[in-house]
Design a protein that fits this description.
There is one protein chain. The chain has 121 residues and is mainly alpha-helical. The protein has 5 helices and 2 strands, in the order E-H-E-H-H-H-H. The termini are far apart.
């Protein structure tokens, strides 16, 4: 089995270190999987970047987040309607979605807690 080496926040490494790492990656004869995390892609050497697959895990744009939140609100409304819970307004749903975004499961849990549980006497 190949071994994996994880270097967290590689963007904190200076240019000399990154070049040495690139050389090590080229010389390694053992099957290795290199995993890097970074907050600033621009701080990485192009030669090092060319040897890795880059996956962008940054947050979506605000516009895309709002579109996603609207879809979550619509889905929550369908669930509440199917459960015949009618006293919840779209504004109340939107508040819960925004509070818990992007966690849809937590949104549903909170809606259930707020609006579906019997009130204590």
């Amino acid at each position: 089995l190949p071994r994996c080496i994880l270097i967290d926040e590689i963007d904190g490494a200076d240019r000399k270190t990154q070049l040495a790492l690139r050389a090590l990656m080229n010389e390694t004869r053992v099957k290795l999987c290199w995993l890097f995390t970074a907050n600033n892609r621009d701080a990485l050497n192009d030669a090092l970047l060319s040897r890795v697959m880059q996956i962008n895990c940054s947050f979506a744009s605000r516009e895309r987040q709002l579109t996603h939140q609207q879809a979550i609100i619509a889905r929550c409304r369908k669930i509440l309607d199917a459960e015949q819970i009618e006293q919840v307004t779209d504004q109340q749903i939107a508040e819960v979605v925004e509070l818990n975004y992007p966690d849809v499961r937590q949104t549903l849990n909170e809606l259930q807690l707020r609006f579906c549980m019997p009130k204590a006497a």
